[in-house]
Design goal:
The chain is α+β, with helices and mostly antiparallel strands. It contains 6 helices and 20 strands.
Length: 299
């Protein structure tokens, strides 16, 4: 006898549309004989009798077949923090705006659940980054990110003074608002807004993007996935803040050193469609493609 299938449902409960969509998902999963888990911080808003209520920790995703996330990319990133350790795939239903991490739209909710129930999906791995903060050589904090680790100034009035290092060698010093170290997945998020390039998800690389830097050389850079990037706050700089995927802030005093390298654990994303990334870009950004004819075939 096989173990009973289970799915964790994570919801942006601050949106009534997300709550209604989650209730539909939970109902259809239950009808398909799949055990549903919800987080204890969301259970009261969802009001779904029969669902297993789980603590907000990595244990919530342990042993689950999938995590279905209803919300925007921020909700998916929050769920990724729960699912990464167990390697449980994430399936995002977009209820936000651009939603690059999401695989399905709210209009396709019933079909999405049916595909999960019949196991008609693939799983792909996305590169992550691990982050270590040091002060005088001592590790003071650690973190990770799917999209980016951003070192930013803590005070609006003062510029951040940093030195960038690649593979143990100094590259340049910048007076700036911050520096974004991103994965290819994160190239369409904060790094994109800061002027970085779009990198296709299957490319293995890390991006280093200075934010509003006052320097002659401050172009976005694409480095090897085997590289180690370090951002040091010079001792006379004002303090800064490290953000991992826009959350989990870590205070950075003057003299702090932030090291970024490829993560040991990837994040796994469930895919229902084999849509080329080019098509996703066109759809998400509303890019003009009128006049395209494609390659003219030989007679």
């Amino acid at each position: 006898m096989t173990d009973k299938r289970s799915v964790l449902v994570v919801t942006h409960t601050g949106r009534s549309a997300a709550v209604r969509s989650s209730q539909l998902v939970i109902s259809r999963l239950s009808e398909a004989g799949i055990c549903v888990r919800v987080l204890d911080s969301e259970a009261e808003d969802l009001q779904c009798a029969g669902a297993d209520v789980m603590p907000v920790s990595a244990a919530a995703a342990e042993g689950a077949e999938m995590v279905i996330v209803l919300g925007g990319d921020g909700t998916i990133l929050r769920a990724a923090d729960l699912a990464r350790r167990s390697g449980t795939p994430l399936l995002g239903v977009n209820l936000g705006h651009v939603g690059f991490l999401a695989e399905a739209e709210r209009e396709d909710l019933a079909a999405t659940v049916d595909k999960v129930a019949t196991r008609r999906y693939d799983v792909e791995e996305r590169m992550t980054i691990d982050v270590v903060v040091r002060q005088n050589g001592t590790v003071t904090s650690t973190g990770w990110a799917l999209n980016e680790a951003a070192v930013e100034k803590a005070s609006r009035q003062r510029m951040l003074e940093v030195v960038a290092e690649i593979d143990g060698r100094p590259l340049s010093s910048w007076g700036c608002d911050g520096v974004v170290c991103a994965t290819p997945t994160g190239s369409t998020a904060y790094a994109f807004s800061a002027g970085g390039p779009v990198v296709w998800p299957e490319v293995e690389a890390m991006l280093v993007v200075p934010i509003s830097a006052h320097a002659l050389f401050s172009r976005p850079m694409v480095v090897s996935p085997r590289s180690v990037v370090a951002i040091e706050l010079i001792p006379t700089s004002s303090g800064g803040v490290l953000w991992c995927d826009g959350s989990r802030p870590i205070d950075l005093p003057a003299g702090a050193r932030v090291e970024v390298r490829r993560g040991e654990r990837p994040v796994r994303l469930a895919r229902l469609h084999q849509t080329p990334f080019t098509d996703r870009l066109v759809t998400k950004f509303g890019l003009p493609v009128a006049g395209w004819r494609g390659r003219v075939r030989d007679e």
